[in-house]
Amino acid sequence: MSALEIRGVRKSYGSVETLKGIDIALQSGEFLVLLGSSGCGKSTLLNIIAGLAEATSGDVLIGGRSILGVHPKNRDIAMVFQSYALYPNLTVRRNIGFGLEMRGVAADVRDKAVNEAARLLQIETLLDRKPSQLSGGQRQRVAIGRALVRKPQVFLFDEPLSNLDAKLRLEMRTELKRLHQMLQTTVVYVTHDQIEAMTLASRIAVMRDGRIEQLGTPEEIYNDPATLYVAGFVGAPSMNMLNAVVTGGKLAIAETDVRIPLPARYANAAREGAQVVIGIRPEALRTATGAATDLSLPVEIEVVELTGPELVTTARIGAQRLTASLPPRAQVAKGEKRNLTFDEAALRLFDPTTGKAL
Amino acid sequence: MSGTWMTTRAWLLMLPLLVVMVAVIGWPLVDTVGLSFTDAKLVGTGGNFVGFDNYSNMLSNSNFSRTLVTTTLFAVVSVAAEMVIGVVAALLLNQQFRGRAVLRALMILPWALPTVVNATLWRLIYNPEYGALNAALTQLHLIDAYRSWLGEPGTALAALIVADCWKNFPLVALIALAALQAVPRDITAASLVDGAGPFNRFRFVILPYLAGPLMVALVLRTIEAFKVFDIIWVMTRGGPANTTRTLSILVYQEAFSFQRAGSGASLALIVTLLVTLLAVAYAALVRKTAGSAA
Description:
heterodimer; A: Rossmann fold; 2 domains; 6-stranded mixed sheet; 8 helices; B: mainly alpha; MetI-like fold; 13 helices
């Protein structure tokens, strides 16, 4: 039995359909990240799971029980919000214990649970403060504590780290990962940050226009993107996409004389004469040391940016641009003509019409 | 440009206003203080200096203490009712329903009407011969015969309080409605997930955001209610048997009906002092509320 099951969920606001049939089943202890840009429907889906919005059709089951029409408080879920959503006039202690207090849990049991959560989140010294006396990171810990004490079947997180500065976001991300590893709870986490998704998730659902574009482990999403959209959305810098045509068993890069061999695994999928999009991750590219090989791309270097751990190099091949993440000490200079090489296994092909991977 | 010239220019620009303020507020106030120490009549000469006699006479007079009780009763009951009705109206008008915009606009109407129009309207409603209230209550079999709501000592003050509430609750509702827009949607959602019912949601989620603005409404309305004159003057003139006489009416009667300018002035200053004390106490309260809500 799945801990959480979403079956054919659709949601319309008037004539606008924001969710167009979502199906996901989560096993207990899984960490699912709903990843997508603004307006893709990820927060709507989370609100439907929480009971803060009603699905137009479809069903949501928690622990095998349909929860449609069930009040949010009776769904056995806890939610952490982007804005922390702490009660401003209650102390941290009462904020954390609020859900238990509303459920009539005895004060001593409540205190024990609050102290336990505070210890886990290292906020024991803040228990008697008001939210206004806390920093952003501390507030988010309190919000997480409020969810933890309830011990629900499913935790829902709505972009919980978006309001924090970059350094704190990194710390809290690790903290969340640590908590999940320790508690092994089922989590649905909404974010538009692909790094958060990659680092936290056991599975990622990449959403676009109210649909799931791809559902898979972070490795699957990153290494084998199902569509051009996923390929472009996940990864920074994003995957290089070069237009090409299958010619004589080779891939002819558009508007150049460059030909690279068509990997054997695509021999059946890519017909002779077909237009394709070649996808190569920037970190799969490296500067060729010797003479040009079959798998090298002659490019002209346009821009070189040192980010610290890598040298992000933008180059031109014909009229098309590509980006390579090179080692920081790579010897490349603007205007230079170089060969960039890669392993055949790193090459992906997409159909430019459907946007799907071949 | 030098600082001195800037300062001089600032004073020069303010000068016309200062002259007007001294002429219409400063001088009358000083004159009233002077007058309150004399036995001057409204017409005739300046009167003789009598020291604190006017003050001691007024404060020991049973009329004053009875009027103070009436005024306090009027202010406390009407303001309390306005706050409750105003907040409830704001909560209702904050819900999503068809026609909400029209209702929100209509609600302001009583407050937008001039007090004299409002008072006249309520005199018609309370009319002992053809008033709508009498007609409604008779048809509902709640009373047997038409009554003179404003003419009976037992009902006049209550009838006035109802009219005052009707006029002033929209102000409270308007302030509360504006404050409700500041309640974050996420906190409301969090309270739903946490299992808070409507009462706890109001107490822990909505009230913290309402407290500050409502305190301002409370201060404004209490001070106004304590100084109330117009609505009572139009509806009952302080009667019957002085049961609706408030401090402002007493000042008016003392100074203009009985033409005792000296003691009228002392009474006016006592009222001013009481209202100032109220304002100071409330200001401290507002600061405290604002501090705790931050």
